[in-house]
Model the fold of this input.
Amino acid sequence: MGETSAYSSHLFVRGTRNNSWSNMLSFILEGSRVLDVGCSAGNFGEALEQMNNCTVVGVDLNPVDIDEARGKISEAYVLDVSDTAAVAGLGAFDVVLFADVLEHLPDPRATLVAIRALLRPGGVVVYSIPNMGHLSVRLDLLEGRFTYTETGLLDKTHLHFYDAFEIEDMFTAAGYGIREEDPVVSEYPERWVTERLAGLGLTADETFFDLLKATDSHVYQYVGVAIPLASLPRNTAPIRTRATPPDEILGFANRIAAENEALKNTDAALVTAAQARLEADLLAADKATALAERDAATAELVATSAARDALAGEVAGLRAHLTYMKTHPVAFLTRKLVERLPRAQRKRP
Done:
């Protein structure tokens, strides 16, 4: 005889909120026929039957859990949901429930495609999926730890890990659209985060906390409703790749080299510009000096011209004096004699 699973002890507590079962309960209409995939011991299915008057059919791989579930819900079978033929024999459902199950399946997208055939018109998929982007995981990774646990975010039986983008991608690829979500939130106080980071030598600032909010670090589980679209997508989700650390380091080195080359070109351009400015300043200085010298030469020329004109006047006066002396010697002598006489004697009687 085997053992019950680690999930069989999970109990539903009436009147609680902000846990995956309570949040999923609000998405399931009263009287629905529900396929509970991975039902374990049937504890949540029992709550659905008692509180929402649902008819619950549970499937699980653990026979001990199924034996217990048979006493709590309408039907329970040891069955692999990937066995499409066996699942088809269960009939049609208003709700197919994946309560923290999709991350355990080998090919969750293929399973979601297959169970579309089980949904009645208007039927939905209700899910809860752990968020690998929760802050607790991020901080563990910063400390260099990624420790598996029996249950929870790092459940050792998880085959896939999801954040909001991966969840949307999975449903879209399987031909569903997410109608609404009511996530389970577990948020650390900022002071606690600051002290935890300080222990790692890191400082948390406003930008860091804004990033945490923008990337749903407070979401512990995504809980929501997905509805089948009219048809499957024509194109499967594109294959995404991520650069390996060596490629990222090489890319960083290439970027630094390019930045250095750009700086060299910038430095050369700055030197050229400085030289051009210096040459322009020298030309301007030479021009100013030349203009000053020209003005000084002009002034000197003007002064020389004035002196020359004055000298020419003096020469002309001397020539006139000599001419008078030659042509009027008696008058010239008489005038000179008169000029030598005292002023009083110059008067005539």
